[in-house]
Each structure stands twice: as structure tokens, then as C-alpha cells.
Fold FAD-binding protein.
Amino acid sequence: MGRRHQSMAAIPSAGASLQFDYIIIGAGTAGALLANRLSRNAANRVLLIEAGRRDDYHWIHIPVGYLYCIGNPRTDWLFNTQPDPGLNGRTLRYPRGKTLGGGSSINGMIYMRGQARDYAQWAHLTGDDSWRWTQVLQQFRAHESHYRLDAGAAGFETAEQFQAFAALHGGGTHSDAQQGREWRVEKQRLQWPILNAFAQACVEAGIPATEDFNSGNNEGVSYFEVNQRSGWRWNTAKAFLRPIQNRKNLTIWTQSQVQRLIMQKQSNGTWRCMGAQVNQQGQSLTVHAHREVVLSAGSIGSPHILQLSGIGAGALLHDKGVEPLIELPGVGGNLQDHLQIRSVYTIHGTPTLNTRANSLWGKAMIGLEYAFKRTGPMSMAPSQLGVFTRSSPSYSAANIQYHVQPLSLDAFGQPLHRFDAFTASVCNLNPTSRGHVQLQSPVFTDAPAIAPNYLSTPEDRQVAADSLRTTRRIVAQPALSAFGPQEYKPGVQYQSDEELTRLAGDIATTIFHPVGTCKMGRSDDALAVVDSQMRVFDGQGARVQGLRVVDASIMPTITSGNTNSPTLMIAEKAAQAILESAKIGN
């Protein structure tokens, strides 16, 4: 990234004050794009603050390296959930990216926008039609570089097919980064016979094949498209920060953790965010923003920083030793996440990664294939085949998602099984359960309490039971019969709703999609934290001046699929709003 972006480059002495126009807290998915967009104008002095280190750890960039990034203090915050009643008292590891690129440096690389109905709901909840699918589509396309458009119309059978695809997607030039299309989307560089058979079984079960999960209706089965370039992970640090590393008006601090926001009450009784207090390896700095502070620390970090700054539920803050300044009871509430239930089936007659990777020879061949071709298992996203369908006919759209893998293990981080098997993990796309994130003390380095409250509603428990039955129905189709699939986990002995729900609590785990903890809403929504332009409410029906939250935490409801790409769309939309606000002097 260049010397001026090193964590200790040009850092002043303790107690000094630094002045910027914009301060962005968090250099993850949203923060990296925001830094790119806000610093385009050389007159804007932009500071980007990241608590983690640079993304120079080699396992970040090799796709299979997520195995070595999650649970690693080099790249992960190492959060854990509170004991969860819906999981029969279990706690879960709760990975959050702690490096340039944030979650995009350790996630599953799956490019997924969600469904048009998600954004219709956002528009309804905020009273702002600019959040509808037809409107946000331009923000998705603004930064997308889709491989299918690389060759223009030549890559399609007809001009009509090209035009229809290009209306939904961005790309199609040899200088996409210069055109603002930095977010690379490619097809995966491998296929597995067992996954092809599973896809055919889905079709036999009435689930249509699809060529595009990102048209607004993702119902169907297909291999996922991924954020990779030529077999390497493509994170937001590469996409949005590396091309602009020489901009003199952009300063990036790493290994710098925000302690709190600097809040000041104005003479007219309104609040303004003046900047932030930052700890950099034990050195405390105060930085000031002339225009805005943008909080992009994610669905765990953003509400935690607000609470540390006196913004949140007053009784909670007082109880934890923080002086309440702004009463916003919704801060840290409304936590939503996708909980996946993993079914494992043993098979025979075709190899899976279990047996390919369980010998020194197999591992050597996998390594050589990646070294010379950038293909094979080392180029794999954590999940390869995707399925979106309905857990029961009562749903009008796909309400469950599968991540299907040609491998199996007892738990994430455990060794692969020594027999051939595949895993079909299914999640409820639109859970009704709601959890929370709450600070535990006024000490900024103390992790907050994370309580997702999974499976806490009858609706979610029913979907859990029905989704396991849907898995069994797919596996029972003729396309898979040649491989003799046998249910290894959870086990055919579990049949009733009660048994399957209890079982889900025993084996389900997070897919790492927390959202909603600084929810966007109308001014009359008592639990809304930001308005439709992501400006923080002041608890009195007005807005805190100079403060926005821009990340997945502002989603009022979770999207119907993986959440990384919707977060980029949110950041693109916010950048436009911030720059427009500066033009008109707001």
C-alpha cells in the first residue's frame, strides 16, 4: 500500500490533533469503497482508520486460506456469542474481519445481491423509494466487473441476451478499475461430479436451474459466482484501496482502534460529531472531521463504538459505566443472522475432497495444481454450489438457501472425514428471531456481548424442521442414487418437528452474516438508529450533525442471501449521498 499507509507513518505525538474533512472508521467492505469515492475529489482530506493490520498475510489471498484466517488473531476479532437458548445453550465462534478489507478478506467470496423483495421491504420501512431494487441496481452495477461482459456481446448467443444481462450487471471494458468497476465477479475454477449430480437432483425435485442468482429473483440451483480474479481472492483492499494508494489526500491508519467518538452539544441544543479518539498501539490521538465521521466498523463494531460514545439505551450505558448522551434504544438491537444447519451424506463411486486431501500425495497434487494453474481445491470458495428454494409451498418466494460442498467434517476447523461425503448446509433466509450487541464495560478493548437469539420464534423453528425435510427430499432424487447417499448427520432417526428443531439447536452454526444493529428507519420508529440516508438520529426526531453509519448494520431486515455485496451497494449509495450533501452545504 505504500509507506504513507503504514500504521506508524506520519503519526503525530501524543495529545496532538489532526484535521480531516472525512473520517471513516473501519477499512472493511464498506469503508474501503467509501475511502475510494470520497477521496476522488483532491480537495477532500480523508482519513481511513482500521483496527487490524494490512492485508499482507498470504492466506488472505489464496481462496482456501479462509481456513487459516478465521480464528486467527492476525485477521479475526475472535468474537464469541453468549450461550444461546435456541442452540441448547451452545456458544458459537463469531468471525469478523480485522484487517484491510475486513470481512471481504476472510469471507466465502460469494457474490450475491439478494432478492428484489428485500429492497421493497427496505423502501417500505424507511419511506424512501430509492431503496427499491430498480433504484439500487445502479449502485450494484456502478462497481461491478462481471466476467461475462469481458468480451461484450461476443460472449452471448444473441444481442438480446447480451442487452438483458448488461442491464443487470456492470463490466465489459479492459480498464474496469479506471471506469469505477472495481469489484471483480468470476465463475469458479472447478466443478465436482457429486455437485453436478446434486444440482440435477434439485431439478428433479422441482427447483429450476438458473444462470444468474443476481437478477432480483434468486430461486434456483447453480454454481456460485465469486469475488476472485484469476484464482486469487479479490478483497475490497485490492479493489478499492490499492489503485488509489498514491492519492495525497487519503491517509490510511492500520492497527488503530477507535476508543470513542467526540460528541459536542451545539448552542441550539443539537449534537454534532466532531471526530474520534483513536488508540494506536498505546498512543492516544484525537482526530477532527470538518464535514463528517462515517462509522463503517460493521454490525458488531459500529453499535459498540456508538455505545462507548454515549449513544444508545441510556439505562444500559449507565449500568456499564458510560455517560448517556443520546437516547437511542435501538443501538445494538435488531441483530439478525443466517443460521445454517449442516446435513452430511456419505457416498461412494466418486471422489470428494475428503479423500483427495487426506494423503500427502493428494495434498501435493492439490498444491501443484494451484501453483501452476490457479485451479483446483485451493481456488475453492468455502461453498461451491448454491440452491435457493422454498421450505414449504406456503412461501411466495425462496425462503431458504443451500451452500453445498464436496466435503464433510465434524465442525469448522476440524479435520476432514476419511470417507467420501458431501455437506448440504441450509439456512433460513428471512429469520424472525432478533438478537442484540451490547457493550460490557467502558473499556474499548473489551469485546461486546453478542446474543443472536437464534431459533427464538415459532416461525424460525418450523423453517428449521421443514428445511431438513427439504434436504432429504432432494437427496432422495434419482440423480444421486448411483452414489448411494446415506444420511450421516443428523440421522434418519430424527423425524418429528420437535426432534428436528432440537437437533437444529445442537448442530446449527452461523454463516457469519450479522446485520441490522444500527437499523435504518423512519423518524417515528423508536428503534431506528439512522434515517434512509444513514444519518444518525439524535433521539429527538432530528439528526446528529456530521455522523453516519454505513455498513451492514443499517439493514432493517437481512437480505435473502450472502451479505457482502449488498454492503458494497450500501456504501456506494452512501458515498453519493455524502458528496451530494457537501455540495448543498448540509
The domain at 189-223+339-428+455-507 is CATH 3.30.410.40 (Cholesterol Oxidase; domain 2). Residues 201 and 479 are 5 Å apart (CA to CA).
